[in-house]
Amino acid sequence: MAGGEPARVDIQVANRGRRRSPRLSLWEPVGDRGGASMQLAPLPADDAVTPASRVPTAQRGIVQVGPLRAERADLLGLARRRSVLTGGAEVVVVPERVPLTAPSLESAGALGEFLRTKAMGRSGTEFHSQREYVPGDDVRRINWKSSARSTTLIVREPALETVQRCTVVLDLHRGSYDADGFERAVSAAASVVTAAASAGVNPRLAA
């Protein structure tokens, strides 16, 4: 479950008996700051109801849900019976992630230009085209055989290599943020890692 996403627990309560059920009070602990209290009216035979409780996802971490407790009371409220209906469960809330597009060789802007420049500057043996020489080209890529048949120098165009891996650095120093700032930094790091993985890049998180 991603941080900030709505989450809830649905509880199905059914009366499988032949008579009307007694009143039922449900209590489900959620997290460490409270829980959900539900009061159910008597159910007719073979009837069911599905109350729900909300799971807090504003903060990342592990949220303990349950165990679900019930208290039955007779119609006059004179007798009560308490029981535990279900066990507990853990809901893992991962950092909130925002949609990002990983930069590529085709990306506009400074980062895309940087990636293209790095790819063009790599030495390699694979070439996919030829073009006329322009000042600044690596002279080692001049195709002298093709240049001899032309009126200008011809250089071999290398095959562009795509980005294969990236490193995301998360500063864990306490003095760098306040509490909210640190959570935003964790969210930003998670967003970049997710975008890189979706683009086929092998991400590494360093902290």
Mean pLDDT: 81
Largest sheet: 4 strands, antiparallel
Give the strand order, joined by hyphens, for the main sheet. Answer: 4-3-8-9
* Count of discrete structural domains: 3
Total number of β-strand segments? 14
CATH class of the largest domain: Mainly Beta
* Rg calculated over all Cα atoms: 31 Å
**Strand-pairing-aware structural class:** alpha+beta
Percent strand equals 25-35%
C-alpha termini separation:
23 Å
- Distinct helical segment count: 3
What is the global morphology? elongated
CATH architecture of the largest domain: Sandwich
State the low-pLDDT regions, or none.
Answer: none
> Under CATH, the topology of the largest domain is which?
Immunoglobulin-like
Q: Helical proportion?
A: 10-25%
The helix/strand series, from N terminus to C terminus, equals EEEEEEEEEEHEHEEHE
Describe the structure.
This protein is α+β, with helices and mostly antiparallel strands and about 210 residues long. It folds into 3 domains: about 90 residues, Immunoglobulin-like (Sandwich), CATH 2.60.40; about 50 residues, no CATH class; about 40 residues. It has 3 helices and 14 strands. A hairpin with a 5-residue loop joins β3 and β4.
